[in-house]
Amino acid sequence: MTGSRPDEYVRSSHDLRPLALKAQGMTGADIERIVRQARQQARREKRRLTWKDIEKGISGNRRPILPEERWRMAVHEAGHAVIRHILQVGHPLTLSIEEQVGFGFVTERRKLIPLENDCEDNLAVMLGGRAAEELVFGHVSVGSGMRSGSDLANATDLALGMETTCGLLPVFRTPS
SUPFAM superfamilies, per this entry (predicted)? Predict the structure, then answer.
C-alpha cells in the first residue's frame, strides 16, 4: 500500500471501467453506500479493502437477471458483434452480461481522420443490437434507447454530428 488511506490500494491498482459498467444505473449515493459498507466489513475483518469487496457489494445490490432477460441481452450483444464482424470494425475481445448490463470489449485502432463510410459503419454497429432484437423477438426493448449513453442515443448523436458538424449531407457533396 503506497497511500495513507486504506482504500488507496483499491483506487490506484485497477481500472475503474469494469466496476462502472457493473454499477450502471446506480446513483452516486448507492455507490457511496456500497463502498462504505465494504470498507466497514474489511475493517471488521482487520484487512484492507479489496477490489472484490466492492464488486461483491455492487453485485449484492442487484436482483438476479431472469433467463428471458439474459437471452434478450445475449441476442442484443451478439447483434453488435455480428455487424462489427461483417463490416470489419475492430476486433471483439469479449462479450459479457454482467448483472443487469450487457457489454462487449473491442479493440479498435481509431483512425486519425475517419471517412464517411467509417461513421456509417459505426452507426450500423451501434444499431446492430437493436436490429438483432427486432429480428429475433419481433420488437425491441426500451433498454436500447430511452437514456443518454444508450445505443440509440449514441447513434443519434453520431448521425446528428455527421450532418451538422461534418457536412456529410448530400447537399454538401461535390457534384460528380
Answer: FtsH protease domain-like (SSF140990)
Active site (annotated) includes residue 77: yes
**97, amino acid identity:** I
Distance CA 45, CA 172 (A): 66
Count the domains in the chain.
2
Closest CA to 72 of 106, 98, 102, 99: 102
Residue 77 and residue 95 in one domain: yes
Q: Exposed/middle/buried for 24, CB within 10 Å: 0-12, 13-18, 19+?
A: middle
Element (H, E) at 98: strand 91-98
- Residue 174, classified by CB atoms within 10 Å of its CB into exposed (0-12), middle (13-18) or buried (19+), is exposed
> Are residue 99 and residue 34 in the same domain, yes or no?
no
Instruction: Output the pTM of the full model.
Output: 0.63
Among residues 68, 77, 98, 108, the one annotated as catalytic is 77
Name the amino acid, one letter, at 114.
Answer: P
- pLDDT (mean) for 29-39: 89
pLDDT tens, residue by residue, 77-115: 899 989 988 998 877 667 777 655 555 555 566 677 778
